[in-house]
Design brief:
Blueprint (H helix, E strand, L loop, with lengths): L5 H8 L3 H10 L13 H14 L14 E16 L2 E16 L10 H49 L9 H7 L78 H9 L6 H14 L28 E4 L2 E3 H8 L3 H10 L2 E2 L5 E3 H10 L3 E4 L4 H11 L5 E3 L3 E6 L5 H12 L14 E6 L2 E7 L7 H10 L2 E7 L6 H13 L3 E6 L8 H9 L13 E4 L8 H15 L2 E3 L5 E10 L3 E10 L2 E2 L3 E4 L2 E9 L5 E2 L1 E2 L4 E7 L8 E5 L2 H23 L2 E2 H7 L2 H4 L1 E9 L2 H12 L6 E10 L4 H10 L2 E5 L5 H10 L3 E4 L2 H16 L1 E19 L3 E14 L3 E6 L2 E13 L2 E2 L2 E3 L3 E6 L10 E11 L3
Parallel strand pairs: 3-7, 9-11, 9-12, 12-13, 13-14, 26-27, 26-28, 28-29
Antiparallel strand pairs: 1-2, 4-6, 5-25, 8-15, 10-11, 16-17, 16-24, 17-23, 18-22, 19-20, 19-24, 20-21, 20-23, 30-31, 30-37, 31-35, 31-36, 32-33, 32-37, 33-34, 33-36
Helix pairs in contact: 8-9, 11-17, 13-14, 21-22
């Protein structure tokens, strides 16, 4: 471990060295300069000095430990309650809660408040002791006075009863035994023998009224069951306190005899007395107090709120109506009612988005806040920000774009055939769509994009991944729709553009036509004063290919493309597929760092460990550096084309991020299908009655084809037919796919894939429509034909001719006959007609007779006069028009 000097410690603390030296000197430590070493003991000494300076205890704070533990227990029992002839079962739940508090080992520091409380407590104790001593002294004096008075009265009584013989020991016996009557008065008090005083607990002294002297009593016979002369002084029952004299008889000496005398049960034995006492206790009625649960006081009492409670509710990207009701502490029906008032048709189990949840929360009078649930995503971002290192030059990524049949594939074939070692000649590997070649100027990575209009998303994705876009335009064809689209994608991605004018070997090649067409798109060649390079090439003969590669290398050198090599890899998925033997296979382009075998990575909603890496030629490799496309094996599923991938440290973080993204995607799908608004429901009412539905199940070999097919087929929908892609995926047609198609009555489309034996069995049993394709043109045409068959036929009216009535003649056979002149088209016999008067239809029927002069004819052409007899209509007038038409059936098409 390196030594810490004064200068390094000051740098860590963020303070000047001179100030630290002053603090060290104040703590009693002398340092000669900033280079002197500071030990750990000196650091602790400085810390204690600073804490004492700021008025704090220099002892470190003890670790926080729980001071209180609460244990809860819940138990349920069932009781059967009988109400007349019926019985009901009541569930009783007993809840127990115990709290254990840890006592502090050291006493709390004595504060001013504690000192004041202790002082008041001591004063209270002193006052109580003084009152107790005063009471004891008063009781003693009263006892002495009573004893003296009793002695005087006894002496007088003895003098009056001198003839009566009394044994000298009897008075002494009667003084010791006092027999109480059966029903003593609660206020009566009898003194015990002299000197036997029992002091009560400290109580407030009451004033005692002076008692009158008792009248002289006659002598009463004495016996075992008769009261003696001292019976006038009644003894209270055992256990009762007497406040009259603050004294009671001391019965501790002989508890059994005292209780026997006090109860007046001298004639009973101990067992009989115990039995009668128990019977008497049972006869006493109990007075029940109010139940604690009935009262509003106590810890569990309910207090009605005096004002509305406003709650802070944290809401994520989406939430179910039930969960929102729980957070609002409201019933679910109230939240659903509020949503209905806002125009959102949602049930308690449906999912609503964040904005709708915030609106309904504020409508109900609470505050809504955004919940941060992206803990794994935040950790992943922090993981990516740690990527640092030396940046080095990387190869350029070039995307070839252009219209269909303009020679993109032929150009890539020529580059690959001439720039790659012998034995790898042939067409481009179709399942990867990306590869790199060695040139004299270095390595160049190429991305191949299809030219069909349905693959617009793939072309846009390729433009975003690339550094340079090479636009291939045929010299004999000029600028086409996909050419314009490619220019727009390149501008949106803000990448430089190179124009490769292909097919220059043809005699009808016209490069100036290509330049003029691109100038209209603001793509101006360098020779015309612009900044775009135009390179004439021929993919068939190889003319200009070297010049094109030279232009690509120069452009890459100008852009100064760099990347960090020694770091965790990040990149983008170009294409993905499901291989029957290898599982999910993803073609990725590394943009930063180095992808190695055994790395853990997150790719969209999937994660995994890299089990193997393959280049575009199918050869296994151990790593892939920036700008190099490779195939990755080991993912948990087939990722979507265009997803980013990130290499992480461990599988735990990768799994958390993937699961969180999958949950968000699922919630987004639920939000898209739930909570229809009233306006949408009202607008869609009546549309499904006349609109046909065509369900499709699409399976393809790669993810890009699935995406393109799905978009192209859904785009064929119109007001008459709705095309639903109920399921789409990568890989062969399985038994589950066939079962789903049979359930939903869908047409199965396999693009470069086939159905297995179990799927074919289900397809044959249910008579499903299964079609295989390898060209996207054929897929779209076939779906149009199937959709047209569902649309049926449409009946149209075609006007054949119009005749103008010049005069009306009467015929005994036909009635009114209109002498007419055919002014337009042809009037044919046995065709329906309409009679128009002032351009308004007044009659619709059939021709009964069509004659020219006296001959019956089948048709009369324009510019010819004829006689027309309308069947069942004789109100023809001069100036009317007779319109001849026919009804034809036309097959509806998309």
């Amino acid at each position: 471990m390196s030594e810490v000097t004064v200068a390094s410690l000051a740098k860590v603390l963020g303070m000047p060295t001179e100030k630290l030296l002053e603090q060290l000197a104040g703590a009693g430590m002398t340092f000669s300069g900033p280079d002197q070493v500071v030990s750990s003991t000196e650091k602790m000494k400085l810390l204690g000095f600073l804490r004492r300076t700021h008025g704090k205890d220099d002892k470190p704070a003890e670790a926080a430990v729980p001071k209180k533990i609460t244990l809860q227990r819940r138990k349920q029992e069932e009781l059967t309650v009988s109400a007349g002839k019926t019985k009901s079962t009541v569930t009783v739940e007993v809840r127990q809660k115990r709290t254990y508090v840890k006592r502090d080992e050291t006493e709390a520091p004595v504060t001013d408040e504690r000192q004041e409380a202790l002082r008041k407590l001591e004063e209270s104790k002193a006052r109580n002791d003084a009152e107790l001593a005063a009471l004891s002294e008063a009781d003693r004096k009263r006892k002495l006075e009573r004893d003296a008075e009793e002695a005087r009265l006894k002496a007088e009584e003895a003098a009056r009863n001198a003839p009566v013989a009394v044994e000298p020991e009897e008075p002494e016996f009667e003084e010791e035994i006092e027999v109480a009557p059966p029903k003593p008065s609660p206020r009566a008090a009898a003194p015990g023998p002299v000197g036997q005083i029992i002091i009560h607990e400290p109580r407030k002294a009451r004033p005692v009224a002076p008692k009158p002297a008792p009248a002289p009593a006659r002598p009463a016979p004495t016996g075992p069951n008769k009261p003696g002369p001292g019976a006038a002084k009644q003894t209270p029952p055992k256990g009762k306190t007497v406040r009259g004299s603050h004294a009671m008889v001391d019965n501790e000496g002989d508890e059994g005899q005292a209780s026997r005398f006090a109860a007046g049960q001298l004639h009973l034995t101990d067992s009989e007395r115990a039995r009668r006492g128990a019977a008497g206790n049972r006869k006493k009625s109990k007075v029940r107090g109010p139940e604690p649960s009935r009262t509003a006081s106590g810890a569990h009492g309910f207090s009605r709120p005096t004002a509305p409670i406003v709650r802070d509710v944290y809401i994520g990207d989406s939430i179910t109506v039930a969960d929102l009701a729980v957070k609002l502490a409201m019933k679910g029906g109230e939240v659903v009612r509020a949503l209905f008032k806002m125009g959102v048709m949602a049930t308690i189990n449906q999912v609503i988005d964040h904005d709708t949840a915030v609106l309904v929360t504020e409508e109900l009078g609470h505050r809504a806040s955004k919940a941060n649930e992206d803990d794994a995503e935040v950790a992943l971002v922090a993981h990516q920000e740690d990527v640092q290192g030396e940046r080095k030059t990387r190869p350029p990524v070039v995307t070839i774009m252009g219209h269909v049949d303009h020679g993109k594939t032929s150009l890539l074939d020529y580059i690959r055939r001439t720039k790659v070692a012998t034995g790898e000649a042939g067409g481009i590997t179709q399942h990867i769509g990306a590869y790199h070649v060695e040139t004299d100027k270095g390595v160049i990575s190429f991305l191949d994009t299809p030219g069909h209009s349905a693959f617009s998303a793939m072309r846009a994705r390729g433009a975003k991944l690339t550094d340079i876009v090479v636009l291939v335009v045929a010299a004999d064809d000029g600028v086409m729709p996909q050419t314009v689209e490619a220019v727009n994608h390149a501008r949106a991605a803000k990448v430089p553009l190179l124009i490769a004018v292909n097919k220059m070997d043809k005699p009808e090649a016209n490069p100036d036509n290509v330049k003029q067409g691109l100038v209209k798109l603001e793509v101006v060649p360098e020779e015309w004063g612009g900044d775009v390079q135009f390179v004439p090439i021929s993919a068939k003969t190889g003319m200009g290919v070297d010049a094109l590669l030279e232009a690509i290398a120069v452009q890459a050198e100008v852009m100064e493309l760099t990347a960090v090599y020694d770091a965790r890899a990040t990149g983008v998925v170009i294409e993905s597929a499901l291989d029957k033997g290898r599982g999910p296979v993803a073609t990725v382009l590394v943009q930063q760092g180095t992808l190695k075998k055994g790395d853990y990575l997150v790719c969209g909603v999937h994660y995994g460990r890299v089990r193997a890496l393959f280049d575009e030629n199918g050869k296994q490799t151990d790593q892939a550096e920036p700008s190099i496309p490779v195939q990755v094996l080991g993912l948990s599923g087939v990722p979507d084309a265009g997803d980013d991938f990130v290499v992480v440290a461990d599988e735990r973080l990768a799994k958390e991020v993937a699961q969180q993204r999958d949950a968000k995607r699922r919630e987004s799908r639920l939000v898209a299908t739930a909570g229809s608004r009233m306006e949408d429901i009202m607008a869609s009412m009546g549309q499904d009655k006349d609109q046909a539905n065509l369900n499709l199940l699409v399976k393809a070999d790669v993810q890009g084809s699935v995406e393109a097919l799905r978009q192209a087929l859904v785009a064929l929908s119109n007001d008459l037919i709705k095309i639903n892609v109920i399921s789409s995926g990568v890989g062969g047609i399985t038994e589950s796919d066939a079962t789903l198609a049979a359930t939903s009555k869908a047409v199965i489309i396999g693009f470069n894939v086939r159905a297995d034996a179990s799927a074919r069995r289900i397809i044959e049993t249910n008579g499903l429509d299964l079609r295989y394709f390898s060209i996207i043109y054929d897929v779209i045409d076939q779906v149009k034909q199937v959709a047209s068959g569902l649309l049926g036929v449409e009946i149209r009216e075609e006007i054949l001719g119009i005749a103008e009535v010049r005069d009306v003649f009467r015929s005994s056979k036909f009635g009114a006959v209109a002498g007419s002149l055919v002014v337009e088209g042809t009037v044919r016999k046995n065709k329906p007609i309409r009679v128009l008067r002032n351009s308004v239809v007044v009659f619709e029927g059939e021709l009964e007779s069509l004659r020219r002069f006296k001959d019956n004819v089948e048709e009369v052409r324009s510019g010819t006069e004829c006689g027309i007899a309308v069947k069942a209509y004789n109100d023809v007038q001069p100036g009317d028009q007779i319109e001849c038409f026919e009804r034809i059936e036309v097959q509806r098409t998309l």
